[in-house]
Write a structure and sequence with these properties.
This protein has 293 residues and is an all-alpha fold. It has 8 helices and 2 strands. It is 71% helix and 1% strand. The longest helix is centred in the middle third of the chain and has 30 residues, at 103-132.
Length: 293
């Protein structure tokens, strides 16, 4: 693999170099035959690349802020690295909005983004290992693993787009929903734990959402054990969409309450907005999958 250097954005982060590709631990259907996949047109390649870059680069930037905010004051090395990631991802996000709709320019953008995202995936892995060891702070281990999985997902998605190949729709229906349903379950659990203990009704509602999405994850995984028909996949997507719409509405209302200081919690308004946008992203993916069936 060609080594790409980003002198404009990439400072020395001091991360260990790990030859293992972090995407290898995430179970997408990668080993597909060429005849089973479809090729993206130039227009599809450009549109998908810009969409994913513009969404996920902001998410990665915000992850850096959240992790930094939850680190203990004496974790100076990790705090500094998180600050640097905030800067480089903000600059890469700005570049994603300025890159012209030309396949060669888009390819360059994607390659640079892959390098940065690989770096932050390793950083998140490092933070998780230290948190499970001696590091103490206010980041839940599940939250660190959650943001690590999102970085890996972004790597997988962008690599697939960069190859200009699209997986068979059955594979994508299974993989995309398993991933995002788990993300929605995690969000619900985070919200429940970050609300003030006095907010009993909101805590119960958040926990109920967590249980609902845990069940949907289980159902989505069961699809992977057979060859679901188009009708079954449509029914599943309809179910997932209904649940995601309800959760997004709850997140939108919670965000407004948090911004207006009308709910007791330690939830940063940036985090509330962050999880709401991810619910909207999930809904957009369901719409795309439905259009392919």
């Amino acid at each position: 693999m060609t080594t790409i250097i980003l002198p404009r954005f990439l400072p020395k982060l001091g991360l260990r170099e790990d030859p293992t590709d972090p995407t290898a631990i995430y179970s997408f259907h990668d080993n597909i035959e060429e005849h089973e996949s479809t090729t993206l047109s130039d227009q599809e390649y450009i549109e998908r690349s810009l969409e994913e870059n513009q969404f996920w680069l902001r998410i990665m930037m915000e992850h850096s802020f959240f992790l930094r905010s939850g680190l203990p004051p004496d974790a100076t090395r990790l705090i500094k690295q998180a600050e640097q990631f905030e800067i480089v991802f903000e600059k890469q996000l700005d570049l994603a909005y300025k890159t012209p709709a030309d396949p060669q320019e888009i390819s360059k953008l994607n390659e640079e983004t892959l390098v940065l995202t690989h770096k932050i995936a390793l950083f998140k892995q490092n933070v998780m290992e230290e948190t499970l060891g001696k590091l103490r702070g206010f980041n839940f281990p599940l939250l660190i693993d959650h943001v690590r999985r999102e970085a890996i997902y972004f790597l997988k998605t962008l690599k697939q787009i960069q190859s200009r190949r699209e997986h068979p729709v059955t594979d994508d229906v299974i993989d995309e929903n398993i991933f995002f349903l788990q993300i929605m379950a995690d969000h619900s659990k985070f919200i429940a734990h970050l609300l003030d203990p006095q907010e009993e009704s909101l805590i119960k509602l958040s926990r109920d959402f967590g249980k609902q999405f845990d069940l949907l994850v289980y159902q989505a995984r069961n699809l992977d054990f057979g060859s679901p028909s188009t009708e079954v996949m449509r029914d599943q997507l309809t179910m997932y969409k209904g649940a995601a719409l309800e959760l997004r509405s709850f997140k939108e209302q919670a965000t407004k309450l948090i911004e207006a200081c009308q709910v007791r919690s330690i939830i940063d308004p940036k985090l509330a907005s962050h999880v709401t946008r991810e619910a909207a992203k999930f809904l957009s993916i369901i719409d795309r999958l439905e259009s392919r069936l």
